[in-house]
Design goal:
This protein is mainly beta. The chain has helices at residues 4-9, 126-131; strands at residues 50-56, 59-64, 69-72, 80-81, 90-95, 101-105, 110-113, 121-124, 152-157, 163-167, 172-175, 183-184, 197-203, 206-211, 216-219, 227-228, 237-244, 247-252, 257-260, 268-270, 278-284, 288-293, 298-301, 309-310, 318-323, 328-333, 336-341. The protein has a single domain, classed as Methylamine Dehydrogenase, Chain H (7 Propeller).
Length: 352
């Protein structure tokens, strides 16, 4: 395995994974440390580099650099900035209900909100993760140990109690009490090399994780254990979309997109119209999928991800996307949140 610094440099820019002082030992926090410095309040927060966007009931919530979290109650026409106790970059956000949500980010940060994303509290950080005992399965002796600087890259809660977070170097966390306590359980995945894990999503009773080097894993017992899924590609997958029962769309480096109609047993390559890396996706209605790329393309599928059409508009580098209740879409990226109209022929419905 490459050393930690070299591997971190290979993480995609669109995912916001730029690090300093990787591999340095934990030190006492000072008042300027981003783990104790709250995110600065700014009227321009919605124009910051935002990495992901999701729904909290009828509300939209977007997260990004320097601890910025913004929310909108009018389908993205206006935004307010949340109160966040850290100023590290936030990479992903998900709500189990309209009020209860979690966000994860750099330095192993896990944040929780109980008011729909207006206010956030710190549940976990990299210093505490590094001190957690490993639990479950086997981890190779060559796999890098937990480091306080390692980022979390995605989070999923099946309800307000049970959740998982995944991240760099095979990091897997689990909670069964709303995040009051967490377990570090990297070994529940057959990932002894500690490959980066970029995304986690549910499909019915199954739970899928995708990551570096074509890694795809599935759990059918609520995340207690995972099995490796036969992968159609050896490059990194940055995300997945699940438009229907058994339907999977995985996407990543160099424009690679693959579709499966049987939960990953068989795969078909999809020509999505670009060689740029796909970085985010959202499901629309019962058969639509939106994808965005690192070079600013937006592609839409009307057939559960079997084919895509790249839309005419080109935006700056993008990392996340969701639909609004009024039939538009919002994409996050280097210039914050950008709204655009969807084709009239696509099935309307809020994205997931």
């Amino acid at each position: 395995m490459a050393n930690r610094l070299g591997a971190m440099c290979a993480l995609p820019i669109a995912m916001g994974l730029a690090f300093a002082a990787i591999g340095s030992p934990a030190v006492d926090l000072d008042p300027l440390d981003p783990l104790v410095q709250p995110a600065a309040q700014s009227a321009a927060a919605v124009s910051a580099f935002l990495m992901a966007v999701t729904r909290a009931g009828d509300r939209l919530v977007a997260v990004g650099e320097a601890g910025v979290i913004v929310y909108s109650d009018d389908d993205g026409r206006s935004w307010s900035q949340a109160r966040v106790p850290v100023s590290v970059s936030i990479t992903s956000v998900q709500f189990a209900s309209p009020t209860h949500g979690w966000a994860v980010g750099h330095s192993g940060v896990v944040l929780a909100s109980s008011d729909g994303g207006q206010n956030w509290t710190l549940q976990l950080d990299g210093n505490r993760i590094a001190a957690l005992p490993a639990s479950g399965g086997e981890v190779s002796a060559e796999a890098p140990p937990a480091n306080p600087g390692d980022p979390l890259l995605d989070v999923y809660f099946s309800d307000a109690q049970h959740g998982h977070a995944v991240g760099a170097f095979g990091l897997v966390l689990r909670t069964d009490d709303s995040g009051k306590t967490w377990v570090r359980c990297n070994g529940v995945l057959p990932n002894p090399e500690g490959r980066h894990l970029y995304a986690i999503r549910p499909s019915g009773d199954a739970l899928y994780v995708v990551g570096e080097s074509g890694s795809i894993f599935v759990s059918r017992d609520g995340g207690v254990s995972f099995a490796r899924v036969n992968s159609p590609y050896e490059g990194s997958f940055f995300g997945l979309a699940i438009p229907g029962p058994g339907e999977l769309v995985v996407f990543g480096l160099r424009g690679n997109v693959f579709h499966s109609a049987d939960g990953g047993a068989h795969w078909s390559r999809v020509d999505a119209g670009t060689g740029a890396s796909w970085t985010g996706a959202s499901v629309l209605g019962s058969s639509g999928v939106l994808m965005v790329s690192q070079s600013g393309e937006v592609a839409v599928s009307r057939d559960s991800g079997r084919s895509f059409q790249v839309l005419d508009q080109r935006l700056p580098s993008l990392s996340g996307v969701t639909a609004t209740a009024d039939g538009r879409a919002l994409a996050t990226g280097v210039l914050g949140v950008k709204a655009f109209d969807l084709p009239a022929t696509i099935e309307r419905g809020t994205g997931s």
